[in-house]
Amino acid sequence: MLAAISMFIVAGCSLGDLPGAGTTDPVDGQKLNVYFLDVGQGASQLLVTPSGKTMLIDAGNNDKEQVMLDYMKTYHIEKLDVVVGTHPDADHIGGLDKVIDHLPVSAIYMPKVQSNTKTFESLLQSIKNKGLKVKTARAGLSFDLDDQVHVDMLAPNGTYENTNNMSAVVKVTYGHTSFLLTGDAESESEKDMLASGADLHADVLLVGHHGSNSSTTLKFLKQVQPKYAVIQVGKGNTYGHPKSAVLNRLQKQGVEVYRNDLQGTITITSDGKSLHIVTER
Length: 281
Ligand SMILES: [Zn+2]
Description:
Layout: E1 8-14, E2 32-36, E3 45-48, E4 54-57, H1 65-74, E5 80-84, H2 90-93, H3 96-102, E6 105-110, H4 118-129, E7 134-136, E8 142-146, E9 149-155, E10 169-174, E11 177-181, H5 187-196, E12 204-206, H6 218-224, E13 228-231, H7 244-252, E14 256-259, H8 260-263, E15 266-270, E16 274-279
The chain binds zinc ion.
Organism: Paenibacillus chibensis
Function: Counteracts the endogenous Pycsar antiviral defense system. Phosphodiesterase that enables metal-dependent hydrolysis of host cyclic nucleotide Pycsar defense signals such as cCMP and cUMP.
InterPro entries: ComA-like_MBL, Competence_DNA_uptake, Metallo-B-lactamas, RibonucZ/Hydroxyglut_hydro
């Protein structure tokens, strides 16, 4: 599907000798691919590690179920080693049930928060049908996705009334490069991540809550210090996402912004040292 669309390289730069948390040095030519899938107004990130391990974070809204299955085909995904449902909102977990129905899944993480929506119940049913047990997503969890790709969960740091703040926030490190994937975490969660003392720095930031004013506070942004930011938004969405205040903040910090509504799916490839960004349009 994507192959038919002309692709062009928009960025490629060396990040130099930044401190990295990789367990072993990346092998030359081995690549981590992070796909910020265009699911309209919603969010979904697919990661494929050098050894072919896969992680899917969110899967867009209910009406994107087929789109998600098509993406799995496009990227030759035959199993998912890790699935993360950041929080129960439909624009994140809507398409997850069908993905779980169609592919073998080894582990699934979700925050400890319930929802009485049909979408959430349908996801729980798919998880149950697969005989999976949900692992609780929370700050402090960490695991290796493969020998060289490390995953740290930086949020939620507590229990919040606002389910957006219950969002699982995932930091992925490969060699000297890192990605911070924030779900819909808002300022309250950002404040607690800052207070937790966790290393928030990342080369790529998935802008929280689709570029809403609720997220990407200046303090948080200054700590993350991303080179690149991705905003997962749908064209002409009714929320007015992304907000101009957030775009201005990113611009002032010198962050290069990529958007699904303008550029389609955004693929960021890391060789452990530098990043290479390709957009669908
Ligand atoms: Zn959302």
